[in-house]
């Protein structure tokens, strides 16, 4: 019986290792619905059916495209889609965070994302960032008490120099991780001159969500939060470094990933991006 017992132990260990390895690289890849904003204007049911045909199950978005909440939820159920995160305006978070809570709960989302800190033209100062710290800590507490997580999505202007680092560093260090975490859009980290992998290593466990987006090689960056949407290219064909980012993101605690393709070619490019990620997963 002893040889059989040893063989059983070895088999059990092997199966455990296989399971852990599969879990490590089994990231669910979702879609930011803004990628299909033009398609939603003319055919909401057909656009959701298209997302289903890509075997995508997790989505990020806001609004119901003119449908009632019941109609919208029925359409999501028919296409096996789940809303993970939804957006909230900065001013709403500042004045009525409970409204953001109620809106998120209607969709079933667990994350609420703020995409922009208001500022004048291309000016963005430490005073505006200090205001953001105050709003995010306060609103994030309200969301946390309601079982939700508030995240902020930088767009590049936050990486302007400040003291020994950047304004983004100030934001991270002065917000409570219980009340605010982040959604990294890898394009909008690369575009202002930052390294997404280095940022993930610098702030592990602070990036809960991630937008996967690649940039046409040779594109000139800036710290103004602006870029030509046509510089969005198929994942893996640009200069953002998606392969290295995906490897680090899992270790850094990223929980949900969303392809976001803002170009006019999104319908053609999204399936190619999914194929790239599938091949990446196999190679790992």
Descriptive overview:
This protein has helices at residues 2-24, 37-40, 44-53, 69-78, 90-95, 97-107, 126-145, 167-173, 186-190, 196-202, 242-252, 266-283, and strands at 29-32, 58-60, 82-87, 111-114, 149-152, 161-162, 165-166, 181-185, 207-212, 214-215, 232-233, 256-259. It has an 8-stranded parallel β-barrel with strand order 1-2-3-4-5-8-9-12, surrounded by 4 helices. Strand 6 and strand 7 (165-166) form a beta hairpin. The chain is α/β, with parallel strands linked by helices. It starts with a helix and ends with a helix. The model is unreliable at 9-26 (pLDDT under 50).
H/E series: HEHHEHEHHEHEEEHEHHEEEHEH
Number of strands: 12
Give the strand content: 15-25%
Helix content: 40-55%
Shape by Cα distribution: globular
Helix/strand/pairing class, anyone? alpha/beta
For the termini, the CA-CA separation is 38 Å
Quaternary class:
single chain
**What is the CA-atom radius of gyration, in angstroms?**
20 Å
Describe how the helices and strands are arranged.
Elements: H1 2-24, E1 29-32, H2 37-40, H3 44-53, E2 58-60, H4 69-78, E3 82-87, H5 90-95, H6 97-107, E4 111-114, H7 126-145, E5 149-152, E6 161-162, E7 165-166, H8 167-173, E8 181-185, H9 186-190, H10 196-202, E9 207-212, E10 214-215, E11 232-233, H11 242-252, E12 256-259, H12 266-283
Features:
single chain, two-stranded antiparallel ribbon, 284 residues, 15% strand, alpha/beta
Summarize the structure.
The chain has twelve helices and twelve strands.
């Amino acid at each position: 019986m002893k040889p059989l017992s040893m063989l059983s132990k070895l088999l059990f260990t092997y199966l455990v290792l296989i399971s852990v390895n599969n879990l490590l690289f089994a990231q669910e890849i979702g879609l930011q619905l803004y990628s299909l904003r033009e398609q939603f204007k003319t055919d909401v049911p057909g656009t959701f059916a298209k997302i289903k045909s890509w075997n995508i199950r997790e989505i990020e978005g806001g609004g119901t495209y003119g449908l009632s909440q019941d109609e919208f939820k029925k359409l999501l159920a028919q296409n096996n889609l789940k809303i993970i995160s939804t957006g909230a305006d900065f001013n709403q978070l500042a004045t009525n965070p409970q409204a953001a809570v109620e809106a998120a709960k209607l969709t079933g989302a667990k994350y609420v994302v703020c995409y922009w800190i208001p500022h004048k033209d291309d000016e963005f100062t430490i005073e505006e960032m200090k205001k953001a710290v105050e709003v995010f800590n306060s609103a994030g507490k309200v969301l946390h008490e309601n079982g939700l997580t508030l995240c902020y999505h930088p767009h590049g202007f936050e990486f302007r120099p400040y003291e020994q680092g950047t304004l983004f560093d100030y934001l991270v260090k002065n917000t409570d991780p219980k009340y605010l975490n982040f959604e990294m859009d890898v394009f909008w980290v690369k575009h202002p001159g930052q390294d997404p992998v280095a940022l993930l290593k610098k702030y592990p466990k602070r990036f809960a969500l991630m937008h996967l987006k690649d940039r046409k090689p040779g594109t000139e960056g800036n710290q103004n939060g602006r870029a030509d949407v046509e510089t969005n290219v198929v994942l893996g064909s640009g200069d953002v470094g998606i392969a290295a980012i995906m490897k680090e993101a899992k270790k850094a605690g990223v929980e949900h990933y969303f392809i976001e393709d803002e170009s006019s070619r999104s319908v053609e490019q999204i399936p190619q991006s999914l194929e790239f990620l599938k091949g990446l997963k196999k190679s790992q």
